[in-house]
Write a structure and sequence with these properties.
single chain, 140 residues, alpha+beta, 3-stranded antiparallel sheet, two-stranded antiparallel ribbon, 33% helix
C-alpha cells in the first residue's frame, strides 16, 4: 500500500492509503513519501506542494446604541469620566454628541470613536486593557 494525495483543481482534496492510483472526479494522484507534511487543502502545482495560509479577516467592529456603548464601561469608569467632563472640553464635546437623542448608534470602527477611547486611557479614566474591551464592544 502507498499513501496518495488526490488532487482536484490544484488542491489536495484527500490523502489516503490505497493500492489504486485513481479516484473518480479527481484530476491527478501523487504518491507521497512515508514521512510527508502534505495535508488536505494544500496546493499542488504539478511539481511541488505548498501550504495554503489563510489570513483571518479581522472582525468588523460592532455598532452599539449609545446606552450599550456606555454599558461597556464599569460604574467606576463612568463616574471617573463624569468627573473629568466637568473641566475637560474634549469630553464635553464627545458627550454632547453621545448624549444627543438623534444619535442612534456608536460605530466602534470609526477613527473618532477609537480616538476618544484612547483619550480616556490618556487621562487615566480607563486602562489600556479595558480600552481594548470597549473597542470590541464588550458589555459589562
Amino acid at each position: 500500500m502507498t499513501q496518495y494525495a488526490y488532487i482536484r483543481d490544484g488542491v489536495v482534496a484527500h490523502i489516503a492509503m490505497s493500492d489504486k492510483e485513481e479516484m473518480t472526479g479527481l484530476q491527478s494522484v501523487v504518491a507521497l513519501p512515508l514521512k510527508h507534511a502534505v495535508t488536505e487543502g494544500d496546493r499542488y502545482d504539478g511539481r511541488a506542494f505548498s501550504r495554503v495560509t489563510v489570513t483571518p479577516t479581522p472582525a468588523t467592529p460592532p455598532k452599539l446604541t449609545p446606552i450599550q456603548f456606555k454599558l461597556c464601561f464599569t460604574v467606576q469608569e463612568r463616574l471617573a469620566i463624569e468627573d473629568a467632563r466637568v473641566e475637560d472640553r474634549i469630553l464635553q464635546d464627545a458627550y454632547k454628541i453621545l448624549d444627543d437623542p438623534r444619535l442612534t448608534e456608536v460605530d466602534l470602527g470609526l477613527a473618532s470613536t477609537q480616538q476618544i477611547i484612547d483619550y480616556l486611557v490618556g487621562i487615566r479614566c480607563l486602562s489600556t486593557e479595558r480600552a481594548e474591551a470597549v473597542k470590541r464592544g464588550v458589555l459589562l
